[in-house]
Each structure stands twice: as structure tokens, then as C-alpha cells.
Amino acid sequence: MTVIIAVAREGAPGERRVALTPETAKKLVAAGATVRVERGLGALAHFPDQAYADAGAMLVEGDVLDGADLVLCVQPPPPASIARMKPGAVLIGALQPQADEARAEAIRAAGVLAFPLERLPRTTRAQAMDILSSQAGIAGYKAVLIAAQLAPRYFPMLTTAAGTIRPSKVLVIGAGVAGLQAVATARRLGAQVECFDVRPETREQIESLGGRFLDLGVSAAGEGGYARQLTDEERALQQQRLAEHLKGIDVIVCTAAVPGRPAPKIITAAMVAGMKPGSVVVDLAAETGGNCELTRRGETIDSGGVTISGPLDLASQGALHASEMYARNLYNFASLLLRDGALAFDWDDELLAKTVWPERAAG
User: Fold this and answer.
1) Per DSSP, what are the bridge partners of residue 163?
2) Each residue of 334-353: pLDDT tens digit?
3) Is 346 a catalytic residue?
4) How do residues 195-212 score in pLDDT, each as one tens digit?
5) What is the DSSP-derived secondary structure letter of residue 292?
6) Catalytic: 127?
């Protein structure tokens, strides 16, 4: 039988992205699947229903997940929706089952085969399916635009009849995908840009984008492309040198995060107190606690003349392009499961075996 792929409208507050675009719908139909989408699926991301219909998808009113073999999503469906999925159905998206026990129990009880793509191994082959990277790029870009809007200064140097305006000094903390996109965006806006990361191997990437690598004398290269935990001595040295450096910085964009863990605290309240009035901190790590001690999730506050913003759902603010990239990530992963229009699972493929949840027993 032909596999039925279903996509429901996203219900999470503030979520505008979609897991399926007309482009990827057309590819899945060409692969032999029947694609069902809930009416109005792409409205907030500017993909009209007619575009899905033209791509060969079926527009459905009501419960589109009923009887589906494979379900694509951005945010995880509520437990009640998961409970209505048929046993053996596949669910692919940013699911984070271990972050919500009710969701985890619903997946187990329904017999659903979940593929939380945040668990995807970080290998070269997996890059085309890496939702963390594709969405982080959008977030890093938007963060710099927010900083430029909040700052009482120009970013570029300007020479005018009223005198010369010196460029803003921007420091990006963390040289992951979001951080590197922030470096590139701030440079395009004309700022002087530095980037700090405890992984020395990021220097070349930072400098290739026109930024300067800020070396505080602390190296914490870890496994899987992430930084290891700093020792108490390393952390004290880092904070001492960083605090002094921040006195001359106009804008900080914080991007340091490790999936599944609270964000590392890098900017202390004392550091903020030492910054110039009118300085700005935009903390992309706000969703997991923030890199700045004073960050408030989803709020913009003033602390002694320093503006601190903890934005949420930044990728949704670029919903059209974010959806295009996210949907391609999901399509590329779903393609591993489709054979002649039906589902097939190669458990010798590490991308499937290491991503599936609940985890399969060895052998």
C-alpha cells in the first residue's frame, strides 16, 4: 500500500513555520507517497493552500493525522494527538520527548516510532537533515537585526558633514552556526566584529567571515563539535579577562548552547554593570536559561542603562525561509525511510538507529 504522509497545522503559540512546503510535498508525491495536509497549513509562512494542491497534496479539513503512516511536524503534537496516531506510525520533527513526560508516555503508549531530529548524529552525511543548524542560521541573522534596532548607535562608520561616526563594536559569543551567521550579518552592517569561543579550531571560520577571534587564553575543545565543561580555574580566568574586555563593547550577541543542557552562564551581572550605558545584549540562549545571568526569557529589560533582550522563536520570525530549510531537512530524512512508496527501515543505518526514540535494543 502507498504510504500516507500527513502534516497538521502547528498549534504552539508563536510558531509560524511548517514542516512541509509545496516544494517538498511535490517531491514526496513523486516518490510515490500520498500527501495529506490540513487546510491553512502554510498560511503563516506564506504558502497558500492552492500551492499545496498544485504540488499534488490532498487538502483535508479536521483530523489529518487519522490513519497516517508518517507524520511531519515542527513542534511536537500534543499528547492527545499522538494518542490518536495508529500503532507503528512514524513521527519526524523537533520532538524532544525527554523534555515532557506526558509526550514521552503518549509516544510509548501509542506505539509510535519517533525520530527526534535533534538527536541526529552530527556527521557529514547528516548535514542535509540537520534541523539544529538550518534553524540556528536564521536565529543568528535575526539576533543581529534585533541588536541593531535596540542599539542607540549606528553599526557602520559614517563620515558626514556633522562629523565622523565610529563603527559599533560587536562581540559574538559562541561560534556555532548561529554565532557565525551573527558574525557575517554584523559585518555586512558595517560593525567591527569579534567572536569568542573556547574552541580554538573556530578561529579560521571566524576570520574567514571578517571577524576577529577573541582569545582569552582558555581552550575547551570537546567532542562532537561542542565545548567541554570548563574547570573552576578556567572559568575564573575567562570571566576576569572577559569582564575587562566588555567595557569597550557596544553590542553582545550570545549564542552558546549545548542541546539537552542548560545554557552556560558566561556574562555575569557584574560584567553587565561594567558595560557602557547604551550597550545591548541579545541572548539567543534565552530558551534554555540564557548565557547572561540577567536574561529574562522572552523579555527585553534595562539594567543600569544596558538593554538585555531574551528573544524566543527567532526562526519563526523568518518563517518562509526557515520553513523551506526545515522542510528540506525533513524530506531528506524521510527519504531514508521510503522505498517504492512504502516505509522500510534499515536499522544498520546509524542515522536511523541513533535518532529513533524510544531507543532500540542492540541487535
Assistant:
1) 160
2) 999 998 878 999 999 999 99
3) no
4) 998 888 899 999 999 999
5) B
6) yes
